[in-house]
Structure formats: C-alpha cells, structure tokens
Amino acid sequence: MSITVYSKPSCVQCTATTRALDRQGIDYSVVDVSEDAEAFALVQGLGYRQVPVVIAGEQHWAGFRPDMISALA
C-alpha cells in the first residue's frame, strides 16, 4: 500500500505525523501542497482544509492521528 502525506512547511502536526510514521517503520512519501497545485486541489477535493492529509490506500484522514498511524503498522 502506498502512503502519501500531504504537508506544508512549518506544520507542527505534519512533523508529528512523519515522525510517528518513522517510529513505526512505515514507508511514505511527502508532497508539499504549497508547491504542488494539483496536490492542493486533490486535498481540497477530498474536503480537507488543513494539513497533514494522509492517504493510505483507500483510507484518508487529516491532522495528527496516532491511532490511524498505529493501525497501519
């Protein structure tokens, strides 16, 4: 399953999310929505107004969600 974290610079919740993924040993990619207009449109299209937005297979969520990250491990 591919996991993508949609983020932006200086985002505390984004940093917490990527650190938690690292601690769990989960591979992921990061996309900066402040530099990628298509990614920004995708996140908005899903109904999100904040970052991070994590898309893991069929599921997705916004914000720092340690419960969801643990479920991926």
UniProtKB/TrEMBL annotation:
Per UniProt, which keywords does this protein have? Disulfide bond, Electron transport, Redox-active center, Transport
Report domain Glutaredoxin positions: 3-61
Q: Does the keyword Glycosyltransferase apply?
A: no
User: Could you tell me which PANTHER family the record lists for this protein?
Assistant: GLUTAREDOXIN (PTHR34386), GLUTAREDOXIN-LIKE PROTEIN NRDH (PTHR34386:SF1)
Tell me its family: Belongs to the glutaredoxin family.
* Job description of the protein: Electron transport system for the ribonucleotide reductase system NrdEF.
**What is the name listed in the Swiss-Prot or TrEMBL entry for this protein?**
Glutaredoxin-like protein NrdH
Q: Which organism is it from?
A: Shinella curvata
Organism classification = Bacteria, Pseudomonadati, Pseudomonadota, Alphaproteobacteria, Hyphomicrobiales
